[in-house]
Backbone:
């Protein structure tokens, strides 16, 4: 049945206008799923990875600016933020000072261009669900598009596969649920399939900086650009020290069989290795998903492999409708763009400060970002103004953006003096509320209003 399932999936992708290379990449991973490949990275096959820190590297100013001048910036912008209750591009969400993620990103790039007199093209990798809203929101930045490169390109899509027989699922009630993104590892396939890889090289650029749009700390910094250019590495990822909040997340390691650096994600970790995954003393570094690659090296690798880099596979088992556990079980085949680090000999990592890793995945993160723990400078660069970011945990009432906005409609509390801020219940906050020290507001069954000007100790 699997041969028939693969053909059905290929036909479905072709009928939907999916790029031919993307279909071949999907077919590669389909065969791995068919053969029983799990994509797991065993603890017994890896050892911890150590690395240099950017703070200890000398990058001359002239070299930094020259490297920035050869850089193209790509932002991953395909997500809808459904886990936060959003139905449009997550980057349309206001983050602070009346600005959205997109506003901040655009202003950061425009400021760098003016300050250093460089082209610094900015491209967004959108999904078909985020493209129109994103381009409309950016229309006000008339100087943002580059003359030779588009402002965006589309990531590919692939069919969800029924777990029972690996055939593409059919869901007439909502055909959009029949499709899923291939993970951000699709970046390389999309750049090649759209011709953008060649266009960047033809336009004189030498390297690419990629990061998530919801990480406003990921500024295309000249110093990091200069470090990468001078390293001679074909590929690099910025890393940060893991904290207790990263215990369940991925980490870097070195594969003992060939000495290559690997990025092990949680979904690639066997149950018996979860304890080692959570060991912050053993595996000390996690990925920021800020990565750099040399354009010539990436083109050569893709050409040699007919467009299939062979990234480690992530097999996700879900239901057709993620919000309804009674719908049929499906397999979604994904790859992570950071997994390309094991493809390139000489690939490397660099430890950066936590200020370059400020992702917003939950409303907990959003609260901190909107608080007085941060400020935006004149170049729209996010500055952390406290030594330590407080631990924040909001209850179910705040999980979706609608509920969050309703309960903080008069502004978020001051958190500069807080070390912990937990609200397990359902409380509405007034204006000018201040949290100091370790603050826990009630229990999970509590509710009420916090008056204007309240000081929570």
Residues:
């Amino acid at each position: 049945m699997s041969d028939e399932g693969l053909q059905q999936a290929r036909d479905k992708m072709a009928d939907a206008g999916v790029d031919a290379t993307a279909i071949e990449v999907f077919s590669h991973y389909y065969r791995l799923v068919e053969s029983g490949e799990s994509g797991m990275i065993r603890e017994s096959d890896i050892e911890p990875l150590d690395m240099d820190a950017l703070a200890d590297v000398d990058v001359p100013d002239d070299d930094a600016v020259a490297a920035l001048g050869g850089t193209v910036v790509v932002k991953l912008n395909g997500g809808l933020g459904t886990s936060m209750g959003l139905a449009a591009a997550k980057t349309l969400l206001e983050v602070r000072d009346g600005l959205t993620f997109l506003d901040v990103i655009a202003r950061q790039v425009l400021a760098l261009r003016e300050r250093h007199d460089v082209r610094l093209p900015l491209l967004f990798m959108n999904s078909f669900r985020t493209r129109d809203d994103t381009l409309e929101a950016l229309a006000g930045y008339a100087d943002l598009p580059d003359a030779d490169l588009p402002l965006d390109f589309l990531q590919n899509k692939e069919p969800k596969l029924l777990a029972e027989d690996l055939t593409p699922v059919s869901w007439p009630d909502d055909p959009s649920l029949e499709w899923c993104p291939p993970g951000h590892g699709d970046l390389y396939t999309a750049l090649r399939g759209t011709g953008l890889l060649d266009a960047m090289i033809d336009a004189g650029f030498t390297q690419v900086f990629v990061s998530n749009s919801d990480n406003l700390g990921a500024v295309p910094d000249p110093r990091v650009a200069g470090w990468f250019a001078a390293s001679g590495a074909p590929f690099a990822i910025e890393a940060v020290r893991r904290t207790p909040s990263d215990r369940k997340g991925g980490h870097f390691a070195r594969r003992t069989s060939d000495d290559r650096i690997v990025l092990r994600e949680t979904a690639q970790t066997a149950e018996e290795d979860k304890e080692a995954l959570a060991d912050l003393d053993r595996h000390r570094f996690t990925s920021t998903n800020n990565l750099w690659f040399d354009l010539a090296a990436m083109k050569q690798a893709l050409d040699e492999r007919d467009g299939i880099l062979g990234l480690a596979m992530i097999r996700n088992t879900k239901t057709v409708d993620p919000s309804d556990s009674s719908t049929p079980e499906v397999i979604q085949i994904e790859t992570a763009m950071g997994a390309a680090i094991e493809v390139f000999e000489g690939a490397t990592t660099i430890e950066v400060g936590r200020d370059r890793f400020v992702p917003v995945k939950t409303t907990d993160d959003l609260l901190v970002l909107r608080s007085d723990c941060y400020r935006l400078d004149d170049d729209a660069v996010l500055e952390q103004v406290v030594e330590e970011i407080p631990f924040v945990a909001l209850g179910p009432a705040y999980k979706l953006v609608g509920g969050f906005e309703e309960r903080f409609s008069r502004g978020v509390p001051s958190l500069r003096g807080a070390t912990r801020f937990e609200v397990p219940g359902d409380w509405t906050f007034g204006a000018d509320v201040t949290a100091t020290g370790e603050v826990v507001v009630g229990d999970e069954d509590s509710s009420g209003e916090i008056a204007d000007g309240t000081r929570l100790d």
Q: What stands out?
A: Residues 110 and 457 are 41 Å apart (CA to CA). The first strand starts at residue 46 and ends at 47. The two ends are 63 Å apart (CA to CA).
